Amino acid sequence: MTPFYRFASRGAIIPFLKAVSRQHVTGTENIPPSGGFVAVANHLSDLDSLTAMRALVDVDVPAYSLAKSSLFEIPLLGRVFKAGGQIPVYRDTAQAGNALVEAERRLRAGDVVMVFPEGTLSRDPLQWPMTGKTGAARLAMATGVPVLPMGQWGAQDIIDSFGGGFHPFPRKDVRVVIGEPLDLSRFGSDTTDRDAVREATAEIMRAITALVEQLRGLKAPRPYDMRYDGDPGKGKRGVRRPDPAPGAQDGGTA
């Protein structure tokens, strides 16, 4: 952990999180003791990246998150992200693929990279994980590193990223559970094998969803799929369509 990363996380970000939340983490014994890995988590709030990373930083494991480029433009937070080595994702541009190239380089160097496989905030009106995109699976397959699934719940009550605003007080409970690492080696290392990549992605999302079920004490419905249920647009939650007939839905992992 570099001096600046330590300062930014423990001197600025974690004190802020402590001021607005009570974070409870279980499963830290599942964190690989050495080497790089891909940490993956569900995504309900713009605060999620900080709460998930804190769960690792609190046990002295620095993580470098793939974050949308707009966050790097926020005056204070952007400077912290840049200096802390976080990885910007320039969506829908020619530079979009650069983030995965940089993430792969860091994994091979033994770093920890955090990815939110849904690719955006969940649009599910029931607040469950959506179908995943394939970036996390591709990184794990290409590098051979394990995937560490994480489920979290509560940050959405602090920052409601769908127009509900910022609610710092009273402090909210944020719960994070870390699951056992996933070994995706059986899917091979060929990231051009679309079927293998899609199956690996589905396994990642099943693991995340199972942890969120544990946190919520509920059974998840089928994953919300923006290709089937529809993309409601920026800053909007979607509306679930009736469940498709068996075999009619392909999982939405492209």
TrEMBL record:
InterPro entries: Plipid/glycerol_acylTrfase (IPR002123). Keywords: Acyltransferase, Transferase. It is an enzyme of class 2 (transferase). GO terms for cellular component: plasma membrane. GO terms for molecular function: 1-acylglycerol-3-phosphate O-acyltransferase activity. SUPFAM superfamilies: Glycerol-3-phosphate (1)-acyltransferase. Its EC number is 2.3.1.51. GO terms for biological process: phosphatidic acid biosynthetic process. Residues 223-254 are annotated as: Disordered. It holds the Pfam family Acyltransferase. Residues 223-234 have a biased composition (Basic and acidic residues). Residues 37-155 form the Phospholipid/glycerol acyltransferase domain. CDD domains: LPLAT_AGPAT-like (cd07989). It comes from the Bacteria. This is 1-acyl-sn-glycerol-3-phosphate acyltransferase. The lineage of its organism: Bacteria, Bacillati, Actinomycetota, Actinomycetes, Actinomycetales.
